[in-house]
Amino acid sequence: MGRVGLVRTLKGTTVFLAVMALACYLGIFPQQIREAADMYDMAWLEAPGIAAISVSAVPIAVALVFFWMICTEIGRDNSFCRKNARLLTGIGFCALIDTGYCAVGTVTIELMVGSPIWLLGLGVCTAGLAIALAAFLLSHLVLKAAELKSENDLTI
Questions:
Q1: Using CB atoms within 10 A of its CB, is residue 39 exposed (0-12), middle (13-18) or buried (19+)?
Q2: Domain boundaries, the chain
Q3: Does pTM surpass 0.70?
């Protein structure tokens, strides 16, 4: 696969993830919150619950925009640059912020309702930490590669 094909695949995957997130945040999550509010007789928590879950969409949207920008740099044949390293660090921080927010939400729901939602929350938090660690690691490696590329460009 060439650079153009790679960039198209990465950007297509980014659009797919954005559409899936949109479907979850506009359809699935509000419906699940409504059902849980009815099941636990806590209708007064429906609107705050939807608002709280909607806040968690912000770091995801920011991370997807950062990834799109990285894909654009790859398309310009500028994969190993300081900008991409900074963007990967930003993705890592977005993942950490969302993971922390999810952990707080999971504990809050567990204390209020006592449902087994903590298992799902634990899985989401583990995935978020894995994404953050991968992003930070890749950021470090891209920065090192950018420095080597810079040294090579000065040598030639």
A1: exposed
A2: 3-155
A3: yes
